[in-house]
């Protein structure tokens, strides 16, 4: 029965992927193709045929990949524990960062690697291979500062049931500073190339929306989906609805005012973080 | 004075003894999905993971995964069935305390043909209901654009509230149903030898079966 379920799900997935690929920018499709051709075989060789590539974290020479030991046989919300490999998108080189399946997430920060364990402990793997504890009660969504001296992250430190997560900045000495904490989930922070503007996603209005604050934690300003509610979405998607990101793993800043993000299934959007205007970025990329 | 103290002591003792009974008399839940013939009936939905009790599920089985705080009910028909539409049902009467919608709802963790299909941990569409005794029921991974109520709405038991999706950290379409108690925090509504002693279902049903649909 499980095998049958797996087979049916795989077929459905293949159809789903084709649909998503139709909306994918060719540049992003090439990125996926490159990972499929070079990274996936390297993972199979290193971790065995059941291992699966789950996430790509960041871009370029210091990208990382999260590897799952074996896919589940049924649909769940299981968050797998991952092994981490380095993935140089430019050269195709793959190196094992940690082959133990024990991490929720990872991100390069400068020449070092931040590793998040399942219990919320955030550790820093230094260039010399030494690992030290940076912070605790970290939820994930790691995003490095441009200088490589800190990480933005979603935090689970409030202890307030109604404020499930907040966002903050963790420097490489382990100091944690909270930047925003509204009702519900505040998550997926990222920081502009000039190190000043922080953009994150919040569900405080009932529709997941981008908000802007600063590296000093200024009062958040809502950028997208103003005036919308979850109930309104059920009446049909409004023309001005801007899809929230599915993670900040593939987010990249085009300039200090423009954030590019994965809105789901590989469809990337560009957001002007001053005006809140956003549109799909579907073609012409090189 | 002495008599007053004795009376007070007896009253306090009575109140303490009554506490577990009050707890038992609190909100009970029905199965939180539709059991119509084209929905979860006839094997349309299966339990894919129970709450984790230190490596076991409530019945000392292994249908769980590490750190799981609720019960996952998966659609046997996968994304095809999700597109058809399967209703999530209010498991008890209450008020919609919190909700979030708008997130992509076809997330999948292990499609390595497209690593961009996987979603982050905090990207699930969800609804949280608060019941009369302060207990909460939580409904996660909902399909985008299907929530039928606004925050603050009073919702009777047994109503359609949204459709099953695969938003957030999800390996396929399923409902993550979670129970929260103001005293004990997140807890398991199933009773069993490796879980709690009191079932919070109106009819718990068999292991790996689905609970009953009678409202309290």
SSE blueprint:
The complex is a heterodimer of chains A (286) and B (216).
Chain A lengths: L1 H21 L3 H22 L4 E6 L5 E6 L13 E6 L6 E16 L2 E6 L4 E4 L5 E5 L2 E7 L5 E6 L10 E6 L4 E5 L5 E6 L5 E6 L6 E6 L6 E2 L7 H4 L18 E4 L2 E5 L5 E5 L5 E3 L6
Antiparallel strand pairs in A: 1-2, 2-3, 3-4, 4-5, 5-6, 6-7, 8-9, 9-10, 10-11, 12-13, 13-14, 14-15, 16-17, 17-18, 18-19
Chain B lengths: L1 H23 L20 E5 L21 E5 L2 H7 L2 E3 L4 E7 L25 E5 L5 E5 L13 E2 L4 E4 L10 E8 L3 E3 L29
Antiparallel strand pairs in B: 1-2, 2-9, 3-8, 4-5, 4-7, 5-6, 6-9, 9-10
Structure in words:
The complex is a heterodimer of chains A (286) and B (216). By secondary structure, chain A is an alpha+beta fold. Chain A folds into two domains: 23-135, no CATH class; 137-280, Neuraminidase (6 Propeller). Chain A has three helices and 19 strands. In chain A, a hairpin with a 2-residue loop joins strand 4 (94-109) and strand 5 (112-117). Chain A is globular. Chain B is of the alpha+beta class. Chain B has one domain (28-187): Distorted Sandwich (Glucose Permease (Domain IIA)). Chain B is built from two helices and ten strands, in the order H-E-E-H-E-E-E-E-E-E-E-E. In chain B, strands 1, 2, 4, 5, 6, 7, 9 and 10 form an eight-stranded antiparallel sheet that branches. In chain B, strands 3-8 form a two-stranded antiparallel ribbon. Classes of the chains: A alpha+beta (286), B alpha+beta (216). At the A-B interface, helix 1, helix 2, strand 1, strand 8 and helix 3 of A face strand 1, strand 2, helix 2, strand 4 and strand 9 of B.
Please provide the ordered H/E string of secondary-structure elements of chain A.
Answer: HHEEEEEEEEEEEEEEEHEEEE
The 3D shape of chain A can be described as: globular
Q: What would you report as the Rg of chain A, rounded to the nearest angstrom?
A: 19 Å
Assign the CATH topology of chain B.
Answer: Glucose Permease (Domain IIA)
CATH superfamily of chain B: Glucose Permease (Domain IIA)
| Structure annotation, total helices of chain B | 2
- SSE class of chain B: alpha+beta
Instruction: Look at the structure and give the CATH class of chain B.
Output: Mainly Beta
Largest sheet of chain B, if any?
Answer: 8 strands, antiparallel
What is the name of the CATH topology of the largest domain in chain A? Neuraminidase
Structural class of chain A: alpha+beta
Provide mean pLDDT of chain B, rounded: 88
What's the overall geometry of chain B?
globular
Report the helical percentage of chain A: 10-25%
Q: What is the C-level CATH assignment of the largest domain in chain A? A: Mainly Beta
- Figure out the total of helices of chain A: 3
Which regions of chain A contain 5 or more consecutive residues with pLDDT less than 50?
Answer: 1-19
How many β-strand runs of chain A? 19
